[in-house]
Amino acid sequence: METVLVLGATSPTAQAFINLMTHDYPTVQLKLFVRNPAKLPADQRNRFPVIVGDAANYADYLRALPDVTYVYNSVGGVHTGAWTQLLLRAIRETHAPIKHVVDISAGGIYGEFRSGLRPYLSAVRTMYPQYTRDQRHKLDWYRDSGLAFTIFRPGLIQNGPETQLITHTPDYHDIRANEFDINRTTFARAAANALLHNAYPNQSLSVHNGAPLTES
Fold it and tell me: DSSP assignment, residue 78?
């Protein structure tokens, strides 16, 4: 059975992904990695295997990886660079048969959000320089790992109507203010396509909204 390890499963972004997977890919098993399982909805605690662990603890990755074929990494925080390296080390040293990793990184690390009055996403580069360097190094870390991967760098993930998806590689630097926001389900769908259908292979992509979707 195909199994997706969802790291940081209590985050709103991960919850949207879990809900989409449950609805659209019911035959794919999910394994939820969390620090506090009480924050998970009761139906998820009952339905899915739950690994109680800390992203900063190498041993917790070792406990989580058996039988995993895909990884969705939505763990946040300024120390995620070190934690990403722990994850990749655990995958390498356990020879886990991972087919694809989706990593949720930070918008603005390449200065791509230049226009408009909000959300000043590119200010992350001056506010958190070490964090920004780590997020930019992720591309090299994943390339060096030999794993298939997709790094997404979203603007503001929020509720609202689904839209088309716009993606740009790091050399693109003109994302307009009215494109910053992205619907959670739209983003979750992009992540599922990357994991299960090899969309956006081995790329670091900014992700934001396009035109609203219309019902046929």
Answer: T
Distance between CA atoms of 38 and 40, rounded to whole angstroms?
5
The dihedral sign for the CA sequence 80, 92, 141, 205: negative
Separation of alpha carbons 29 and 135, rounded Å: 29
Whether residue 104 contacts residue 73, with contact meaning beta carbons closer than 8 Å, is answered with yes
Q: What is the pLDDT of residues 72-108, one digit of tens each?
A: 999 988 888 899 999 999 999 999 999 999 999 888 8
**How many CA atoms within 13 Å lie on the side-chain side of 15?**
13
What is d(CA 154, CA 209) in angstroms, rounded to the nearest whole number? 10
DSSP assignment of 123-169 = GHHHH-HHHHHHHHHHHHHHHHHT--EEEEEESEEE-S--EEEEEE-
CB 33 within 8 A of CB 51: yes
How far, CA to CA in Å, does 129 sit from each of 33, 126, 141?
28, 6, 18
CA–CA dist 9, 72 (Å, integer): 9
Residue 216 pLDDT grade (very low, low, confident, very high; cuts 50, 70, 90): very low
Residue 186 has which token pair? 């739209």
Query: With a threshold of 0.85, does the pTM exceed it?
Result: yes
Residue 186 CB-half CA count within 13 A: 24
